[in-house]
Amino acid sequence: MFETFEHTADLGLRVRAMSLENLLEEAGRGLFSMMVTNLQEIRGLQERTYRVDGTAVDYLLFDWLNELLYTFESEHLLLADFKVELDSEGLQATARGESMNLDRHLMEHEVKAITYHGLRVEEHTDGWFAELIVDI
Amino acid sequence: MPKGAFSGPLERVNDCCWRIPKSYKEGMRVDGLIYADDRLIEQIRGDQAAEQVANVAFLPGIQHASLAMPDIHWGYGFCIGGVCATDPKEDGVISPGGVGYDINCGVRLVRSNLFYQEVKPHLATLVDELFRNVPAGVGRGGKYHFNKKELRRLLGEGPAYLRDRELATDGDLDHTEAHGCLPNAVPENVSDRALERGSKQCGTLGSGNHFMEVQVVDAIFDDEAARTMGLAKDMVCVMIHSGSRGLGYQVCDDALKKFRNVPEKYGIELPDRQLACAPINSDEGQGYIGAMCAAANYAWSNRQLLMHQARESFQTVFGRTWQQLQMSLVYDVAHNIAKLEEHTTGGTARKVWVHRKGATRAFPPNHDEVPSIYRGIGQPVIIPGDMGRASWVLVGQSGSMDQTFGSACHGAGRAMSRTAAVKHAKGRRIDQELAAKGIIAKAQSWRGLAEEQPDAYKDVNLVVDVVHKANLATKVARMRPIGVVKG
After folding, report:
1. Do B445 and A107 touch (CB under 8 A)?
2. Strand partners, A16
3. Domain B11-486 in CATH: superfamily?
């Protein structure tokens, strides 16, 4: 699950999940929920695959979200369905979504960037937890 | 990440300045100085912005003090409203976080020969036309497309490149900070990803706090300066607030990624990863400086194209050319930037990299970098407020050179988080409330208006009062909005 939290000029994203894979998937949804109000209206018509290398979990989350943001910025593709698999060098993922359509998708924030400020990814006894702040 | 109110020391220096002594945290190289009066300092204590002022004081080569303007608020890494100058000769660093993602976010003010009574009957049409003609909001591309080769020229030359395409004039360039072109720009340092993001976004407003406003000169405080700028009471003007769009965000992001291990490499200890920096005299530092300056040139081009589209809209509505409407650029200022400037600290003149993260250059009269027409009054300083109250035009004063590396505030500063603002707006129609005050506001999203509602901001008048009193910049004209276009 994910939720947004307050930060004076920007927005925070908090994610909880049972596994790191699931945390990364939920973070992807969380990111797009800041850009589109009606995330449920995004249909899985197109697919993109990702390879992100890195073993530090915080940078892995950061780089993964950055890849997704770049997909939106360069192709105007909205993504809402993610499948992440981890291996020894990083992650392999597929994401499904569709092109932005202003008649159906209620666009909300322009996410300028993911920031390192307050970036946390932690494993707790009851699962994984992450927090980050995006620049709006 | 510490949350809640700032609990560190804030010592009163005078009526409009407070000190965080460098003894507050081990590692601070200089004091922190916050420009604020008694009312604003109470708001400033409310979050972690002052802690961020203290953190910036850790940066190697920092001169004088880690400074904050009265519109300071909590940012990421640097506070918003911060100024810091670093000396390359003292192992000074350059920090992408001290510039921000939106490199050369800034503001420009355009005048006209129209007065309020003349525009009032056409205001709704005018705002509709601006809303139609000026791309705003998430994911909306512009009508000016540049291929990679053209974009590289634009990044190297800034709006001068647009002059060749008749989208800018010599007068526009003269009235743009640095003539819209930083000579340290190295377009080759800008990544393909950044170029891709920038190829279709030049001439677009974006979202967040960016806007285009039709404003009226509401009150004049300095007759001579106003006359020199071509401003008169009740005159209709256009204010434009935007930056370097996706291109600049990507340049910052690329640099922060490259800088991940750089502080460690050079033995720099930082209290926050977002303060990542590199020595100015290092490959990493120079690589960022070249790309950042290129992104700054892009931002000036973006505001130039936004102004061009505003001029087109006025032409359509009023049936006269923009030249007949005398829509000349008063001035364009950057408020997220780092620039190499000469300043005197401790009795020594030195060239320093001045980081202005949410702060505006405010050079005084007779400064070489002030356009000749303004040399007698000082550099115009454009301060956008919120969409319901006021914006300001100031002029830089000598106090800025003595105290703040030639800098003043950049806006009202947020008082409410975006989430709190949306809650505060629940069940209300911000556009109708503004309409009751004679302001027509059009935004691509309800949420955009809610987050940017007047109540979400500090009172810009309080911020400007402090800047005026501290003699960083003095009041010339107060502007009130009548038409607002937002993403």
Report:
1. yes
2. A129
3. tRNA-splicing ligase RtcB (3.90.1860.10)
